[in-house]
Design brief:
This protein has 115 residues and is an alpha+beta fold. It has helices spanning 4-19, 23-28, 77-85, 90-96, 105-114; strands spanning 33-39, 44-51, 54-62, 71-75, 100-102. It is globular and about 30 Å long.
Length: 115
């Protein structure tokens, strides 16, 4: 089971991937949206803001936050690490229910292109 620190490192790598996006992917990574990632096995949520291709202002909240983010992800810590490391396919994990995503259709399509 991934630790909170490993999950934070995975989010940092995701932020680096977003910041390093170029061309068409850069436009996909650029939306200004609130973002949350609930790690179910640790029962914590990482809350931040996706802005200019970076995840900013990340903080850890116990359980699930009261206010819903514009882009909400839910998965285990191991799945978060595997997703960011490229070992877990986002579309397959989402279709099978391993990764849950609450977002508008446009944001779903953007995330598919990034992850």
């Amino acid at each position: 089971m991934a630790t909170i620190d490993e999950c934070l490192e995975a989010l940092d790598r995701l932020a680096e991937n977003l910041a390093g996006a170029s061309g068409e992917l850069r436009g996909v990574a650029a939306p200004d949206r609130s973002l949350s990632c609930h790690v179910t096995d640790l029962d914590v949520t990482f809350v931040g803001h996706l802005r200019e291709g970076h995840i900013k202002e990340v903080r850890t909240v116990p359980g699930t936050p009261e206010q819903r983010a514009e882009i909400g992800l839910e998965m285990t810590g191991d799945d978060l690490v595997a997703l960011v490391d490229g070992k877990l396919n986002f579309a397959r994990a989402w279709a099978s229910g391993r990764v849950k995503l609450k977002a508008g259709l446009r944001d779903v399509l953007r995330l598919r292109a990034i992850l």
